[in-house]
Write a structure and sequence with these properties.
Elements lengths: L15 E6 L11 H8 L9 E8 L6 H6 L1 E10 L2 E12 L2 E7 L1 H4 L8 H17 L1 H4 L5 E5 L5 H7 L12 E6 L7 E3 H8 L12 E2 L2 E3 H8 L2 E4 L2 H6 L10 H6 L4 E3 L26 H16 L8 E6 L8 H11 L4 E6 L4 H13 L4 E4 L4 H10 L2 E4 L9 H7 L3 E5 L2 H6 L13 E3 L4 H17 L1 H13 L4 H16 L2
Parallel strand pairs: 1-2, 1-6, 2-5, 6-7, 7-11, 11-12, 13-14, 13-16, 14-15, 16-17, 17-18
Antiparallel strand pairs: 3-4, 4-5, 8-10, 9-10
Helix pairs in contact: 4-6, 4-7, 6-8, 11-14, 12-13, 12-17
Length: 495
C-alpha cells in the first residue's frame, strides 16, 4: 500500500492533506500580502487533523541563506506545450511546515519574482503543471490543492485536463483564493494555447476565454471546486460591475461556491510587547503612558518637530490609485493646516511618490515622506502613530488596518472590502467602535472624518483611549480564519 492511499490520526480519523500552491510565501519571497497569508496561515491549522504543506517556485532572487538550507530531492522532465522542461524538487521544513520548491533556472532566474507579459504567463503555466507533476514523486496525495491568485489559476485546469487519466489524481479537490481580482494573468489566446499545450476545448467564453483573450484566473475560478476571497464584503462587491474587474458575471454564476474569509496577521510578529523594531514596548494596559515614547523616538529619527502631544497620522502602503492617494493629494494642503504630523512609507506610482516628496519639502517638520520600503520602519510607524489613514478605492482585505488595531493605532478607513469588515466605526453616543470610517469615495468626506478623529483625540482623550482599548482587544490572528478554512476543507472532502 502506498503512503498516499491512507493516513490516519491517533484517534483513528483520516488525516486530511492540504497543499498550498503559491507564487510567494514569507520568509522566502515576498512582494505583498499574498506572501504573508501563505507563510503564516499553514502554521495555524490543527496539526492533529490537517497535514498542510506549501509549494512555491525556487527563485534565483531568494536570499542565499534559504537556498543553502534546501535539500535536493530529485528531478525529472515534463512536457509544456512544445517544450520538454527540467523540474527540480527541493525541500525544507520551516516552523513545522513542509515547504517544496520547484527548481528551474530558465523560468525562475532574474532579479525579482515577476516580470511581465507572456513571460510571466509561461513561467506560471510551467509552475502550475509542475505542482501537479511532483505529487506522485514526493509521495503526497493532497485531498485539497489550495491555489492562490492567477499565478496558480491553471492548476485546476490541468487537473481537469491531462491529469484525470491517472488514478492518483482522481478525486483531488481544488480551492481558488482571489487575493486581488485586479490581477488576472491575461494574454492573447494563440500565445497562451502554444504556451500551455491546452486544446481548443478550453478556450471558449465558458472556460478560459474572456473578451477574446485567455485569462488564467478565470480558468481557475471556473474549474475550482470552491472559490474564496479575503473578506465577506469583497466577496459581495466582486459580484458588481464596479469591483468585478469584468468578471462580475462569473462571480455571480459561482456565488454558491464563493465565500469570504478574512485574512489574519501573525500575532507573534506584530506584537507591541515584544517587537524588536520599536523603541518602547507596551500592551493594552500600559499604552496610555508607554506608547507615546515611540512617537518621540520616531519624531527624532525622522527629523519631525518633537512634540509628543501632536496627533500623528501614519501611512504604510503601496502608493497606487487603489489605495486612495488621489483623495489625499486633493486635500493635503488643507490637512497640513491642522495640528497633525503625517508619516508616509512606501513606493509606487511616480506621481504619488513625488506628491509626498513635495509636501515633505513644503511642510518639513510636519510631513515625513519615506519613499522606500523598510520592515523595521513600518513597525515603528504602527507603534508611534495615533491614527492610521487607509482611504482605499477598493481593498480585498487589507492587512495594515489589522496591524494598526494590534498596535493601538486607530484606523481611519473607507468602508470597502476588508476595511468595512474589520474596522467598526466609532459611535460617539454609544461609545462603541474601533476606528473611523467614511462611505463615499470623496476627498472632503475623508477630511471631515479625519477632523472628527482629531476632535476626539484633542478634546476627549478618555474617549480616544477607550477606542484604543477596544482596538487592542480585537483578535485578528490567523486562528479564527484557519478554523473557517478547516470547515471549508471538511465540506469539500465530504465530512
Amino acid at each position: 500500500m502506498r503512503q498516499w492511499e491512507i493516513c490516519t490520526t491517533k484517534e483513528g480519523l483520516l488525516m486530511k492533506k492540504i497543499l498550498f500552491a503559491t507564487s510567494e510565501a514569507v520568509p522566502f519571497i515576498k512582494t505583498g500580502g499574498l506572501a504573508d497569508v501563505c507563510g503564516a496561515l499553514p502554521k495555524c491549522f490543527d496539526k492533529r487533523y490537517f497535514d498542510v504543506r506549501v509549494v512555491l517556485p525556487k527563485y534565483a532572487c531568494m536570499k542565499q541563506e534559504w537556498k543553502d538550507k534546501m535539500q535536493y530531492i530529485t528531478h525529472f522532465y515534463m512536457d509544456l506545450g512544445f517544450k520538454n522542461c527540467y523540474v527540480g524538487i527541493m525541500h525544507m521544513e520551516y516552523d513545522g511546515i513542509q515547504f517544496y520548491f520547484i527548481d528551474n533556472e530558465y523560468y525562475f532566474s532574474g532579479p525579482k519574482p515577476y516580470d511581465s507579459g507572456p513571460w510571466d504567463l509561461e513561467k506560471f503555466a510551467f509552475f502550475s503543471k509542475a505542482v501537479l507533476s511532483i505529487l506522485p514523486v514526493i509521495d503526497f496525495r493532497p485531498d485539497v490543492i489550495h491555489c492562490h491568485d492567477w499565478q496558480t489559476g491553471l492548476v485546476p485546469v490541468y487537473l481537469h485536463d491531462s491529469f484525470q487519466a491517472g488514478e492518483f489524481f482522481r478525486g483531488i479537490k481544488t480551492v481558488m483564493t482571489i487575493h486581488n481580482l485586479k490581477f488576472q494573468g491575461v494574454w492573447d489566446v494563440k500565445t497562451v494555447k502554444a504556451i500551455t499545450g491546452l486544446s481548443d476545448y478550453y478556450f471558449t467564453p465558458d472556460k478560459l476565454e474572456a473578451y477574446k483573450d485567455a485569462n488564467y484566473l478565470k480558468g481557475g475560478i471556473v474549474f475550482a471546486d470552491a472559490v474564496t476571497t479575503v473578506s465577506n464584503t469583497y466577496a459581495e462587491e466582486i459580484k458588481t460591475p464596479f469591483y468585478g474587474e469584468r468578471l462580475d458575471g462569473l462571480m455571480r454564476a459561482r456565488s454558491n461556491s464563493l465565500r469570504g474569509i478574512v485574512n489574519g496577521i501573525d500575532y507573534d510578529e506584530y506584537n507591541p510587547e515584544t517587537d524588536p523594531y520599536i523603541a518602547n514596548h507596551y500592551n493594552a494596559v500600559t499604552f496610555r503612558k508607554e506608547k507615546v515614547k515611540n512617537k518621540r523616538a520616531l519624531q527624532k529619527e525622522l527629523g519631525l518637530n518633537e512634540d509628543p502631544g501632536v496627533m500623528m497620522l501614519g501611512i504604510v502602503s503601496r502608493l497606487t490609485d487603489q489605495k486612495g492617494f488621489d483623495l489625499i493629494a486633493y486635500v493635503m494642503d488643507e490637512l497640513c493646516q491642522d495640528a497633525v504630523q503625517i508619516v508616509v512609507l512606501g513606493t509606487g506610482d511616480e506621481r504619488y511618490e513625488n506628491m509626498f516628496r513635495h509636501f515633505d519639502w513644503k511642510y518639513h517638520g510636519k510631513v515625513s515622506a519615506n519613499i522606500y520600503y523598510s520592515e523595521p520602519l513600518s513597525h515603528k510607524i504602527y507603534a508611534a502613530s495615533d491614527a492610521f489613514l487607509m482611504p482605499s478605492l477598493f481593498e480585498p482585505c487589507g492587512l495594515s488596518q489589522l496591524m494598526s488595531l494590534r498596535y493601538g493605532t486607530v484606523p481611519i478607513v473607507r468602508e470597502t472590502g476588508g476595511l468595512k469588515d474589520t474596522v467598526e466605526p466609532y459611535n460617539e453616543y454609544e461609545s462603541t467602535g474601533t476606528g473611523f470610517s467614511f462611505a463615499n469615495y470623496n476627498a472632503h468626506e475623508m477630511l471631515g472624518v479625519i477632523r472628527n478623529a482629531e476632535r476626539i483625540f484633542y478634546d476627549k482623550k478618555r474617549e480616544w483611549n477607550k477606542i484604543v482599548d477596544r482596538a487592542m482587544a480585537k483578535d485578528f490572528s490567523w486562528n479564527h480564519s484557519a478554523a473557517q478554512y478547516e470547515e471549508m476543507y471538511n465540506w469539500l472532502i465530504g465530512e
